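Q: What changes when hypoxanthine is included in the input?
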Amino acid sequence: MLEKFKKTADFILNKIDFKPEVGIVLGSGLGGLGDKINIKQSFDYKDIPNFPVSTVEGHSGKLILGELGGKKVVAMQGRFHYYEGYDMNIVTYPIRVMKFLGIKNLIVSNAAGGLNPKFKVGDMMIITDHINFFPRNALFGKNYDELGPRFPDMSKTYNPELIKKARDIAEKNNIKIQSGVYIGSSGPTLETPAEYKMFRVFGADATGMSTVPEVIIAHHMGIKCFGMSIITNVSEPEDAEQETTHDEVQNVAGQVEPNMTLIIKELIRSM
Ligand code: HPA
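A: The predicted holo structure follows.
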């Protein structure tokens, strides 16, 4: 399997003349952040050996290599979700490849449902910690000792320095930013009112269907992680029956994009 990751990475490295330092996963409706990258090379997933192909609406499925915030980056435009039916090894395959491309930092974005009653639609949330509520851990199965330990410590999974830098950047630019715990579960159903309530009781501030597997795999390999959610819908206890549509999620994510782009770009610059 390690050979497979290396082979995929070598295919890419043979077509570029630099090594990316930062990996980015562009989540739901945030694909436009990719437009800010000074693109040197881009690949359709279907043209990369061993790469999975994305199926969900709004995910174009491109791996972009170029420059953002003065750094060399590799960005996934379109990610793989567990709810699409992929095994965790497939969901996280690109993250392993990014490690072999040479990244030291990973930035992950997503759309999420707000659980914290202080959150409003359109808020951005820096992820300070997560709860893994997926039915299977991304590291389930054989451990690659060459990549990381069998039982990884998870106390500082979201890098405290990067969190501080992002907060400073937001403050400096008068951008309102929330912080909190992201709970990841498989989907594809959105939560029932009872489930939203349960997640709130667990201590989570936002809920979504991605990010946790990718961050576990990156952290296991010693990559510094930073994550941000866009709150696309909220579940107040009183109006938890309010309906949420996929279109709504994409629209809100699109509106928040400029601020999100600014923060991520400046964060990369500060690395
Ligand atoms: N729940 C789970 N995933 C989501 C939500 C939600 O309410 N909103 C956007 N992604």
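Observations recorded in class: The pocket of hypoxanthine is lined by residues 111-113, 190-191, 207-209, 232-233, 244, 249 (CB under 6 Å).
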